[in-house]
Write a structure and sequence with these properties.
329 residues; alpha+beta; Ribosomal Protein S5, domain 2; Alpha-Beta Plaits; 2 domains; 4-stranded antiparallel beta sheet; 9 helices; 13 strands; 22% strand; binds ligand DP6
Length: 329
């Protein structure tokens, strides 16, 4: 928590009144970026180097309840988190930005996704926390404002305050007031996201440290912002025109290019496990055989497949353990 962050929150909340309820609660979906956020231009205000675009993961996400309390306590999936854990620290630090609501809080979080295994639990986590806080404090803020606040907790959380296709704008203002997310007015009921859980172990280097290291040490990062901008436009076009091969190809290329910038960091960031690579090769082989199947990967070993409902049975035949999500189900 810094003075700049405190001032930012004051600006966002200007004109709102806090009318406390006994409890606030909310759900926020996880999201998977089709065009990734990788790198910040301002770490304090969590301003990204580029815009990004995601699709939410249906009812996979985070449910959070929050109350004002005599002391801080944080529960994750029913278990009390120790004050030395990163989860506790990030939650409690973030809540210190809201003294107008309370000095201490009890937070109960239920995740239907593995925490910190590259399935963006910090995204749905901070989004649900901010939505629950808005409920507790009675601010009645709109989603755009809530995305600005969630962004401060975790960049990708700005996108998780909505469902469906969501764009998070990089913005241009130094004060961070125009770096918010917005829902894209489009549905794609046939779209499927398949989750292949390679490992649910805690990853050694989180996204935040990983992207900062990449920006600081990877020569390949120099070419990333221009590609990310072009990919985002291609994804937007593919959504508008319902061009699935264009969407899949752009998303996969974007994710693998992001991993290339990580590999070229020092010390190198290698999130992919042998099993992840095996899946990548299988997807390429199946595509060679004519199956319209693509993938995306975040800063972790898990693979998310992208395909249309019409080929679901072929995809399941190749990956029987697949967990299928209908983003517009
Ligand atoms: C690879 O949102 O976790 O998932 O803003 O530092 O909290 P912080 O980072 P975070 O990074 C997400 C990175 C990504 C790509 C994406 O979701 O766009």
């Amino acid at each position: 928590m810094s003075q700049i962050q405190t001032q930012f929150i004051k600006n966002v909340l200007a004109g709102t009144e806090t009318q406390l309820s006994e409890k606030g609660s909310a759900f926020a979906p996880a999201n998977i970026a089709l065009s990734k956020y990788w790198g910040k231009r301002n770490a304090e205000l969590n301003l990204p180097a580029t815009s990004s675009l995601s699709v939410s993961l249906g009812d996979l996400g985070t449910k959070t309840e929050i109350r004002v309390a005599a002391e801080d306590s944080v529960f994750l999936n029913g278990e009390a988190m120790g004050s030395e854990t990163l989860f506790y620290k990030r939650t409690v630090d973030f809540l210190k930005l809201f003294p107008m609501v309370g000095a201490h809080f009890e937070v109960r979080t239920q995740n239907s996704i593995p925490t910190a295994a590259g399935l963006a639990s910090s995204a749905s986590g901070f989004a649900a926390l901010v939505l629950a806080l808005n409920d507790l404090a009675g601010w009645g803020l709109g989603r755009r404002m809530l995305s600005l606040i969630a962004r401060l907790g975790s960049g990708s959380a700005a996108r998780s305050v909505y469902s469906g296709f969501v764009q998070w704008y990089a913005g241009t203002d130094d004060d961070g007031s125009d770096s918010y997310a917005e829902r894209i007015d489009a549905e794609w009921p046939e779209l499927r996201v398949g989750i292949l859980e390679v490992s649910n172990v805690h990853k050694p280097v989180g996204s935040r440290e990983g992207m900062n290291r990449t920006v600081a040490t990877s020569e390949l990062y120099n070419s990333w912002p221009a590609q990310a901008d072009a990919d985002l436009e291609a994804i937007r076009l593919s959504i508008r025109e319902k061009d699935f091969p264009m969407l899949g190809k752009t998303a996969e290329h974007n994710a693998l290019s992001m991993h290339a910038t990580m590999l070229a960091a020092w010390p190198p960031l290698i999130y992919l496990q042998p099993e992840s690579l095996e899946i990548i090769h299988t997807v390429q082989r199946l595509r060679g055989e004519g199956l319209e199947l693509f993938l995306t990967i975040d800063a972790g070993p898990n693979i998310k497949l992208l395909f249309l409902e019409s080929v679901a049975s072929d995809v399941i035949a190749a990956f029987p353990d697949l967990r299928i999500i209908q983003p517009f189900g």
